[in-house]
User: Fold this.
Amino acid sequence: MTLPRVVQDVGWIASFLGADVGAAQQVGEVDGIDLLAISGPKEPFVVVMSAGLAERPIASMFPQELLVTVQADHWEGALILLQTALEVALERGRGFSYGDLVGNSEPLLIGTRISGLIADVNPWLPAESATRRDGREVQTTFVSMLPLTDEELETLTRTPETERDSELGKLDDRDLLNLKR
Assistant:
C-alpha cells in the first residue's frame, strides 16, 4: 500500500531530523493546508512545514512544500512566517523558486526586525532533503523560507537575482535561526 503524498512528505523531512512522522504536531492551518512542527531529538531547531501545498494546483516546476526553520523556542514566529509565505503562494497561484523574496515594509513579527523571507535550500538539513524522489521522478521539492531582517531584505532586494546566492552566502555568519536578531 502506498502512503498518501502528505504522509510521505512529512516523513521525508522528519527522517532528516532523526524523527518519524509521529513526531510532527499540527500547529495551524491555511486554507485547508496543515502546518506542522517537527523537531528531532538532538536538534536545537524546529522545522515548521506545510503539509498539503504539493497537492494544490499552483504553478511550480514540481509540487512543493514550504519550510521555516528556527530555534526551537521560536516556533510560533515560524508559524506566522510560514502562514505568510503560504498566503502569498496561494494568492498569486504559484510556488517559490530559490531566490524569490517576500517582503513587507513593517515587521512580519511584532517585536522583531524580521520583515521578509527568501526562498532557498534549508542550510541546516542535508542538500538531498530538498527533493523527494521516486526513482528518478521528483515527487516533491521542499523550499525553505529563510527569515530576513529589514536590513537583510533591503540588501537582497537591491541585489540582482543572479547575484543573490552570493549575497545570501554572506548571511552565513548570522544566526538565521534566531528571529530576535
User: Anything to note?
Assistant: The helical segments are 5-16, 75-92, 150-158, 164-169. The mean pLDDT is 94.
